[in-house]
Structure formats: structure tokens, C-alpha cells
Write a structure and sequence with these properties.
By secondary structure, this protein is mostly helical. It is built from 6 helices and no strands. It has helices spanning 2-5, 8-32, 45-62, 66-86, 96-99, 102-117.
Length: 127
């Protein structure tokens, strides 16, 4: 639909903002204990992941150092998928619907897209 094409930059900005916000909430759950009973031990891999989620999500949301931060977030979610969801198991455990890794896989690819595209409209990075 050609009518929607003029809103491409707005839609991308909303994708970046909402993705960053939602991602930061996962970090707030781990680091700040918001609406979660799970709090990882300080310095553990899960805690470092929570810091990346919280700070990285906020940075992507506002569009600060977007290429670099989104790339870090993408890698973090790739590690989460492979190490904590798939666990390198054979058979159907590879598939996100089975291993409950759908969010990790989606976040990884959305952040990769954001890393390639940058901050765009409504971002601190915008030049």
C-alpha cells in the first residue's frame, strides 16, 4: 500500500522505541526485582544480561549509540537463545515454540535490524 510508505520512518522509530522499552522492562525485572521473584546473583551471567537489557533497552529506546548498543543487545539475545533455550539439544528442542525461546530469537533479529539501521527519527543519534 503506497499510502503507508510515507510513514516508514515513523513506523521504524516506533519499532525502535517500543522494542527498547519492552527490553528494558525485562532488565528491570532482573535487576530491580520489578514484578518478578527471580533476581540473579550480582556478577552472574544472568545479572550481566539483566544490566544489558535494562541499560541497553533504554539506550535503544532513546536512540543513543544505537548501532553499537543494538548490536550488543542482539548478541545478548542470541546467547540467551542458544545457551538457555535451545541448550544445543537435538530434535524438536531446537524450535522456539518448543524451547520457549521465541522472544529471545525475535529480540535478537529485531536488534540486529536496528543495529544495521541506526537511530533514525526521534533519536538522540539523529543527525
Amino acid at each position: 500500500m503506497q499510502q503507508l510508505k510515507k510513514y516508514t520512518e515513523h513506523a521504524y522509530a516506533l519499532l525502535r522505541i517500543v522494542t527498547g522499552f519492552l527490553f528494558s522492562f525485562h532488565g528491570a525485572q532482573k535487576i530491580l526485582g520489578w514484578y518478578s521473584e527471580f533476581q540473579p546473583q550480582v556478577g552472574s551471567q544472568a545479572w550481566i544480561g539483566g544490566i544489558i537489557e535494562l541499560v541497553g533497552g533504554l539506550a535503544v529506546m532513546v536512540g543513543f549509540q544505537t548501532h553499537l548498543i543494538a548490536f550488543l543487545c542482539s548478541g545478548t539475545m542470541a546467547v540467551a537463545y542458544f545457551q538457555f533455550h535451545w541448550k544445543f539439544q537435538g530434535g524438536p528442542a531446537f524450535f522456539p515454540a518448543i524451547n520457549k525461546g521465541e522472544l529471545a530469537a525475535l529480540y535478537s533479529f529485531i536488534f540486529l535490524f536496528i543495529a544495521c539501521r541506526g537511530g533514525g527519527k526521534w533519536s538522540i543519534d539523529k543527525k
